[in-house]
Amino acid sequence: MTQVLLSTSFGEIVISLDEEKAPVTTANFLQYVDSGFYTDTVFHRVIPGFMVQGGGLTRDLRKKDTRDPIQNEASNGLKNRRGTVAMARTSAPHSATAQFFVNHSDNGFLDPGSDVGYAVFGEVTQGMDVVDQIAGVRTARSKGMADVPVEPVLILSAKRLD
After folding, report:
1. Is the pLDDT of residue 82 over 90?
2. Are 75 and 115 in contact, with CB atoms under 8 Å apart?
3. Is the dihedral of CA 136, 33, 58, 81 positive or negative?
4. Of the candidates 18, 53, 85, 108, which lies 20 to 30 Å from 29 by C-alpha distance?
5. Which residues pair with 155 in a beta bridge?
6. CA–CA gap between residue 119 and residue 58 (Å, rounded)
7. C-alpha distances in angstroms, 149 versus 12, 67, 130, 146?
């Protein structure tokens, strides 16, 4: 199982990826990791008791250019529960590109049901305490977005662990 180390301004988070159940999503995420895309991006949407989302915006909240969207793999059997990592998307089911989120609590309503769901592709295996700290930051509206940390929460780097 491939692991990725996210070094953040709050500490380190290790994510174990499920290549078997989410091959398309995992390959997509690893392409972004390997290219250095996530370096100096931020967690731009933080909602305690729900999730922390990042991976697509710079410190000044500019959206980074991404590759094409991927096929949604939400029906892979993995559930949106505390500590799992899933792809963020728009209301269009197959619109995920680079942004991801860590579930801060069990979010079964994000699993397939009345909607196609949000594709879980990994789980935090170390650093959930860091996610909890991030979830506790003060947020406000900024550049038309809600739930933006007042002080930027940086993803300093993302790299594969051997």
Report:
1. yes
2. no
3. negative
4. 108
5. 8, 41
6. 24
7. 18, 26, 15, 9
The tokens for 79 are 């559930």
- Closest among 70, 112, 121 to 95, alpha carbons compared: 70
Whole-angstrom distance, CA of residue 153 vs CA of residue 30: 21
Which amino acid is located at 41 in the chain? T
Nearest residue to 17 (alpha-carbon basis) of 124, 110, 156, 155: 124
Environment class of 113 (CB within 10 Å of its CB; exposed 0-12, middle 13-18, buried 19+): exposed
Query: Which structure tokens are listed for 1?
Result: 């199982």
| Residue 106 · residue 84 · CB < 8 Å | no
Amino acid found at 34? D
Q: Render pLDDT for 61-79 as a digit per residue (tens, 0 to 9).
A: 999 999 999 999 999 999 9
**pTM for the whole structure:** 0.97
In order of 14, 106, 130, the CA distances from 20 in angstroms are 18, 22, 27
Residue 95 is predicted with a pLDDT of 98
